[in-house]
Design goal:
289 residues, alpha/beta, five-stranded mixed sheet, 11 helices, 12 strands
Length: 289
């Protein structure tokens, strides 16, 4: 019995099939099957029941998984705490919502590289709904998104909430939201859905909403007078200083946006946990600055 056999056994049991485990481990399906066969032979028992839908654990497989998870967690802790931080050269795939890209992502990456100078980072910027799916499919290691992600295998670390504000062009009178077009987040986002619900409840179904795939572009649309918009207060500061837009108060706004640093906690990944904690520290420092 080897650590690679146990690691392979865990991936097959987690993902429910040899093909998915092979993709996750970046090895061939025959290699996965060979490791499982060798493990079963060494233990003298069958660990999986093969079905048309994949595989499921036998009673002996369930027992082994409890031990294998403890061993895998222990190996991960040894690797993380024994290897010097400057020697960590893993690849970390990070998915980021645009609000974070426009605010504290550069400071987070700088802090991450200061601590782990040889860490390889791959950034994906996308909608939260897509980032969540990629995290569950394990094509991302860490997701900074509107969370939390409600899934047993995912750990969520709360990030500071992002306050929203209404903006309008600086040279326009205070708008009537019943008649003024509203510039908003992407139509597949949570803020868009909540804003549309509020506008329908307060003003009826005829309110015009212009969704934008880019927060920056949305603020520029507001500055040009196309409409008004509700966006993160900090992101409007630069255009306010330029005299292009101003805040206004129609008497209501959406609740602050809640973000989390979410990562797959099964299997244990100490590096992702440390990165998520770093994200929380950087985000808090940004909002306090």
């Amino acid at each position: 019995m080897t650590l690679e056999q146990l690691r392979t056994f865990l991936w097959v049991s987690r993902l429910g099939g040899v093909r998915k485990a092979a993709q996750e481990m970046n090895i061939t399906q025959p290699a996965v099957s060979g490791r499982i066969a060798a493990l079963e032979e060494s233990l003298g028992t069958t660990l999986f029941e093969r079905t048309s839908r994949g595989v499921s654990l036998t009673k002996q497989g369930v027992l082994l998984r409890e031990y294998a998870e403890k061993i895998a967690d222990l190996v991960e802790r040894i690797r993380f705490h024994v290897v010097p931080e400057e020697s960590v050269n893993s690849l970390m795939r990070i998915g980021v919502a645009e609000t974070i890209v426009q605010t504290w992502l550069p400071a987070f990456l700088s802090a991450l590289y200061d601590r782990y100078p040889n860490l390889n980072v791959e950034i994906t910027v996308d909608l939260t709904v897509n980032l969540r799916q990629q995290l569950l499919e394990r094509s991302l290691d860490l997701a900074l998104l509107m969370g939390p992600v409600s899934e047993y295998s995912v750990d969520n670390i709360d990030l500071p909430a992002v306050e929203l504000a209404w903006f309008t062009a600086n040279d326009r009178p205070t708008p009537d939201l019943h008649r003024t077009p509203i510039v908003s987040y992407n139509r597949h986002s949570r803020p868009y859905r909540e804003l549309k619900r509020q506008l329908t409840t307060r003003y009826g179904d005829d309110t015009k909403i212009f969704p934008s795939n880019s927060i920056h572009a949305g603020l520029e649309m507001v500055a040009s007078g196309i409409g008004v918009g509700m966006f993160p207060r900090r992101l409007g500061d630069a255009l306010i200083r330029q005299g292009s837009i101003r805040e206004f108060d129609p008497g209501w706004k959406l609740q602050p946006l809640k973000f989390t640093a979410s990562f797959v906690g099964d299997p244990l990944n100490e590096l992702c946990r440390e990165a998520a904690e770093q994200a929380r520290t950087v985000a808090q420092a940004y909002l306090n600055s």
